[in-house]
């Protein structure tokens, strides 16, 4: 079991964000304009202190540029069947090459995400095309969460995670 004592994330949060959830990575471009990209997987360090989201360099070019300029990111993880949503923010993000296993993680994520959206009428081919990324284009954006919020629609949306923020 991971030691989460110094992290904003507990084991349940880690299981959620590394599961089959939609992942959107956002950053701020010069002039205050937002940049957003879908991510194709997530991994968390053993101590739960660092989160890495995987993106395609071409598809996420604006976000990657913004992250390199400021290091500030916001990542939203949302479960399509329940709309349960968690948002993490960080200010020390780095753009890194993928680690061993990240390509397989991205493939597994696309397979699982296509399957979870199928009951909602989204054709597998459409989901795969939407999340497509050549293996050699994959990058990781790693950051230490400095704030974490529930963003599940409802009366508690926007509240910091209990006891963690």
Q: Explain this structure to me?
A:
The structure is a single chain. The chain is an alpha+beta fold and 165 residues long. It is built from 4 helices and 9 strands, in the order αββββαβββααββ. It has a 5-stranded antiparallel beta sheet. Strands 3-4-8-7 form a 4-stranded antiparallel beta sheet, sandwiched between helices.
SSE blueprint:
Elements: H1 11-17, E1 22-28, E2 34-38, E3 42-44, E4 51-56, H2 61-70, E5 73-78, E6 85-90, E7 94-96, H3 102-117, H4 124-130, E8 138-143, E9 147-150
Antiparallel strand pairs: 1-2, 1-5, 3-4, 4-8, 5-6, 6-9, 7-8
Helix pairs in contact: 3-4
Features:
Split_barrel_FMN-bd; globular; four-stranded antiparallel sheet; 165 residues; 4 helices; alpha+beta
Distance between the termini: 22 Å
The secondary-structure element order is: HEEEEHEEEHHEE
**Roughly how much helix do the residues carry, as a percent range?**
10-25%
Query: Mean of residue pLDDT?
Result: 93
Number of helices: 4
Strand adjacency order, main sheet = 2-1-5-6-9
**Percent range for β-strand residues:** 25-35%
Q: Which term fits the overall shape?
A: globular
Number of strands: 9
Oligomer: single chain
Largest sheet: 5 strands, antiparallel
Flag low-confidence runs.
none
Structural class: alpha+beta
InterPro entries: Split_barrel_FMN-bd
Short description:
The chain is α+β, with helices and mostly antiparallel strands. 24% of the residues lie in helices and 28% in strands.
């Amino acid at each position: 079991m991971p030691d989460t004592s110094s992290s904003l994330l507990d084991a349940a949060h880690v299981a959620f964000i590394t599961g089959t959830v939609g992942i959107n990575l956002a950053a701020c471009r010069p002039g205050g304009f937002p940049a957003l990209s879908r991510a194709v997987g997530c991994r968390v360090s053993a101590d739960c202190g660092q989160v890495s989201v995987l993106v395609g360099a071409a598809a996420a070019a604006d976000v990657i540029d913004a992250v390199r300029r400021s290091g500030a990111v916001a990542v939203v993880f949302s479960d399509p069947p329940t709309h349960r949503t968690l948002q993490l923010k960080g200010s020390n993000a780095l753009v890194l090459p993928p680690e061993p296993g990240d390509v397989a993680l991205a493939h597994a994520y696309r397979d699982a995400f296509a399957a979870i959206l199928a009951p909602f009428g989204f054709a597998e081919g459409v989901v795969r095309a939407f999340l497509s990324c050549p293996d050699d284009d994959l990058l990781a954006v790693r950051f230490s969460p400095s704030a974490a919020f529930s963003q599940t629609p409802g009366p508690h949306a926007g509240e910091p995670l209990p006891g963690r923020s």
